[in-house]
Amino acid sequence: MSEDPSAPMSSSKPLTGQTAGMSDLPLPIDLLPHRPPFLLVDELTALVPGESATGTWRLTGDEYFFAGHFPGRPTLPGVLMCESIAQVGACAVLAHPDFTRKLPLFGGLDKARFRRQVVPGDQLTIEVELGRMSARAGKGAGTVKVDGELATSCDLMFVFADA
Fold this sequence. Notes:
7 strands; mainly beta; globular
């Protein structure tokens, strides 16, 4: 491959686990300002900068929130699933050259629905499609699935701050 690895990713060519090696996709920690324990996506499996992204989050049971939510019946809080959707969406935004020096912040959350309990040992597949984006704000919609079954869905709105 003769492409410059430091060159911005083109939004015209999707990068997916099927058409590109996993090493061709950036790590979420390289795109996002989030750090553990609040980095809620382990890897990206598909990415079209400025348009969409898919990521994976594997729950081990060692995550800090399971101890108190709920003792004896650990359950992933629904708001953290919404945050994981926002983080995967932010990966799609920040991978686009027009937004690399921006910080997408939550502007709103609509139509959040929680369909199933998510527990330690589950692997979440997080998919986000971005909608309209401007220099100041944007919209997106996302889902979290476990074993192909819908766990959470929501629409997000975000505003851009300078990073």
